[in-house]
Amino acid sequence: MKMIKLFALVFFILVVGCDETENFEENENRIPTDGLIVYYAFDGNVDDSGDSLNHCIDFSSKKYVNGISGLAKEFDGKNDYLMLSKTLNSSKGLTISFWAYIKGFREGENNGTVICKYNKWSAYRCFTVGTKDFTSDSVARLSGNFYALPTTADYRDCAWSNITAKEDIPAKLNPEQFTIHNPTELPQNEWVHCLINVTKSRVEAWVDGILTVSKEREYEEYFDSENEPTYIGNNLLGGVGVGNNNHFYGYLDELRVYNRDLSEKEIQILYLNPN
Predict the structure, then answer these.
(1) Residues 260, 32: Cα–Cα separation, whole Å
(2) Are 45 and 122 found together in one domain?
(3) What pLDDT digit, counting tens, does each position of 25-62 carry?
(4) Integer Cα distance of 96 and 103 in angstroms
(5) Residues 13 and 48 in one domain
(6) pLDDT tens across 65-118, in order?
């Protein structure tokens, strides 16, 4: 009888131990939700699937395609955009993760905006995340900018994924604050994972789970206005002329915004587990 009880106990420990190991591994590889403030899966709607219920107001043709996970939102590069029903607070920086399928850039569109809170004309610059290189009509790159002053773009923390030499860094920014890790242009007509990570010390641009370029943070806090809307797919008031020329052309999927920085492992999880 004692041997039977001992065998049963050993069997129980082995089974429970395996279950706990599996649960631990599952938890370790789960999509990070701590600090998640909005999550747009774009599975046939523009609702926030996170706890904030910050649903978008849809100013688009409301078209969807097969995405990296489920459906994805189509943006026509001419008219489509979304506006968050509640604007984001970017004063401490934000970490932004998304999948993009870039179809190119329409003539006259100079930014390929993914998400932004930026008004050049009222001098309410807060942040922008985009996919187009200003120096070329055909090159796509991941860019993230967080502005310390609302009246100028000269004072900001930023990163662009395709910087290959410090000579490429715009004037009035300190080249010595940039580190070139694995410079990368964004591919077009295929899915790519993009992530701008704002840590306590750096702004980082990640492409397909790889750190491309980073910049040391100069500013602990960025300008933010609760009156400035947050847009997805366009920057209505950020371009030349009368603005409204910063449309994204392609598909977006699995867009997440965090109010904290992510670890390298968490970034890898978001890349390797798109759903």
Answers:
(1) 11
(2) yes
(3) 556 789 999 999 999 999 999 999 999 999 999 999 99
(4) 21
(5) no
(6) 999 999 999 999 999 999 999 999 999 999 999 999 999 988 877 779 999 999
Q: Residues 120, 215: one domain? A: yes
Residue appearing with tokens 């938890």 = 27
Query: DSSP secondary structure string, the chain?
Result: -HHHHHHHHHHHHHHHHHHHHHHHHHHHTSPP-TTEEEEE--SSS----STT--PEEEES---EEE-SSSEEEEEESSS-EEEESS----TT--EEEEEEEE----TT----EEEEEEETTTTEEEEEEEEE-TT-SS-EEEEEEEESSTT-SSSEEEEETT--SGGGSPTTS-GGGEEESS--PPPSSSEEEEEEEE-SSEEEEEETTEEEEEEE---SS----TTS--EES--TBSSSTTS-----EEEEEEEEEESS---HHHHHHHHH---
Are both 22 and 116 inside the same structural domain? no
Instruction: Tell me the CATH number at 45.
Output: 2.60.120.200
Are 21 and 43 in a shared domain?
no
Q: Are residues 49 and 25 in the same domain?
A: no
Instruction: Identify the domain containing residue 9 by its residue range.
Output: 1-30
In this structure, the answer to whether residues 14 and 89 fall within a common structural domain is: no
